[in-house]
């Protein structure tokens, strides 16, 4: 058939410019003339489709009914395992969250930004800027965002910003991590926070309160060598000092050990009420005066020792999916803007003008004219994004630390993990691929129907 | 050498180590290692000459003139260059021509494809013992002949021959190995605080508590990378339960609910369960990846004093920090827990024969010899299991120590347990041992639950 490139003479004569024979079946010669060259041109494309799309899809389906090594037919076992396995379930759930949140967010943001940038002077420059993330591979973006959301404020810029703001309003404690020794006179106070002496003291005593857990070099500059006060009958005196032990004597003030300045010391009476408050001096000494006779416990307020605020664990199990979605939004918004801006440019100006002349506010123009006119386009963008989201893989793979990857997993990642990552179970992996295909099919159907409608 | 395609642990501080090839990253010290000063002392040479004299295998038969051998292995970059120098030595001794091609991470895929295509290399270098088993079971490997096994027995502890054997039949010659039983520490911090390197687990935990009291976070643990946690577990388990139980656990003769596992987990919990001992606390630890855990200890402003890990941490130190290996960065052996057992957790690459022939066996005999090990040792970034290679043959004393520990542990070396498991259990992000130990780090109270989960996952991965 492929050699038959010369059209039969009779057919040529009948066909040129003439109407088809009314009602009758086309002659075999005419069929060949119609489909011969067409088939010839279609063949390469069909071949490609068959080899690269149809065959793999069918093979995946078949493979999903076999076990890991592919030797044994297991029926629907892989599907059953897929839906009973916790990890896969998490992946399906996460993919659901992605589909619900991400495309709508990007389309909405894209619409708003496109409309807004239309009004400004440097619109093109602005749009180029917003489009730039699209030029970065998802993998590289993932690495960037892994760093952006790093928990350590010294590395992660988000936490650095949060910590800066936080510390502006609440200055960090002076001795984070300082704590008493387990067998020392102080013990953690679950009710008040901070530390309280186990023993009660009476005025006239001198109390030594050693703390550990701070590097000597991290003490404030004015810290001076610690020394026990002499004591006087009516006052409760003492010293709070850094008992740097390694290589030194445990307990007891060694030479070279410094007091801890500016720690708030409270004397609590038997009922737990604060009877007196003092602040330690540079040498760590404090003096609680004007105390009535009685027994008091000493309390070091927790605010002195609070761990520094270090921001949030963005890449922990609970926040990791929203964080990865935010990275994807950053990348894809440029894509949405470009499309929607093009659509905006095509909107007939007179429609907008007419609305404005009729006294519509800008908001009304946007809602009642711009958005409806953009409707079909927004749908195209949205559907494209949904398909894009369903196959999301690299961002999750790169951003989620190993310990939370299972919490952040999505179907495509789970599929890779199961079939190639380590498990090597391509039967189960194929089942996941089929699931992904089934999820994409309705969108495809919808898309095709819409194309048809548009054409008619 | 800086452009080695091999993924190196920690070329960049923030690069996620979960990226492709974490397994390779941990068994491979990587190119551009710290020990790049091939100054061979006269003493070292003398030792080697002596060693060669007693090293087995008649290697100097120069009758392979027309023979061409092909080797396929995972090494690339500086490692490849170093290995090719070793091969040059063989070529000059025998007249044979040997070509090496490094295929990186794709080794198993490449080998499988070539086996299917009927075009096998003569010798392959295989990092995972499991792969040796797979190939041997399918009849793709040629057993070592008597000359080679004699050379292996002469030069290495019997345990190495065992690791390279399948059903009692020897297949692999271990050439380049990794010592995973080390604790790296920041010597500046130790000097500042007056800390002494510990010998036993009690001293180790005491030191950790002491360091914490003087305001230095003692430990940096890469909890985000599951394999780091399995290495911790393996070291503790090998010390607590001993090599025999280790084998039994690995071969599933005892379950993961065995009391020995409980004991090991409880020992681990002494450290993992104490937030004051871990820099960043529990949640920070679970977010820390391997390169960061190293830079935490050796950065200019260190946030922790010690990091447990393999000899290749030295490579990360020299590539990502300003600390000098052997100077500020030093290590001691993983502490003894129950008695003084010189056991060492190791990993390594085995050379296996895929073609039968005198020349192939000759080459393997050579690779088992101390002269081959010596040739690579002086170039640095290499540790040999060869007992006839003296510690001072290495370019720096630190590497010498690493090798000496392996040699002196003799038959108490054990291959990385997670590498001996099916990948679904021993090497999957977010699954199996990795995830179970990460969960355990998050909640060290849950010893029972962790053991049950490990047992269930192991049973599933082993297809029981």
Automatic annotation (TrEMBL), chain A:
Keywords: Cell membrane, Membrane, Transmembrane, Transmembrane helix, Transport. It is found in: Cell membrane. Pfam families: BPD_transp_1 (PF00528). Residues 1-26 are annotated as: Disordered. This is Alpha-glucoside transport system permease protein. InterPro entries: Ig-like_fold, MetI-like, MetI-like_sf, UgpAE/MalFG_permease. GO terms for biological process: carbohydrate metabolic process; transmembrane transport. Its main location: membrane. One of its GO terms (cellular component) is plasma membrane. It comes from Nocardiopsis flavescens. The chain crosses the membrane at residues 34-55, 97-116, 128-149, 327-348, 369-390, 428-448. The keyword Membrane applies. Belongs to the binding-protein-dependent transport system permease family. Residues 92-447 form the ABC transmembrane type-1 domain. It is a multi-pass membrane protein.
Automatic annotation (TrEMBL), chain B:
Residues 437-464 form a coiled coil. It holds the Pfam family SBP_bac_1. The keyword NAD does not apply. Keywords: Coiled coil, Transport. The keyword Kinase does not apply. Residues 1-38 are annotated as: Disordered. SUPFAM superfamilies: Periplasmic binding protein-like II (SSF53850). Belongs to the bacterial solute-binding protein 1 family. This is Alpha-glucoside transport system substrate-binding protein. It comes from Nocardiopsis flavescens.
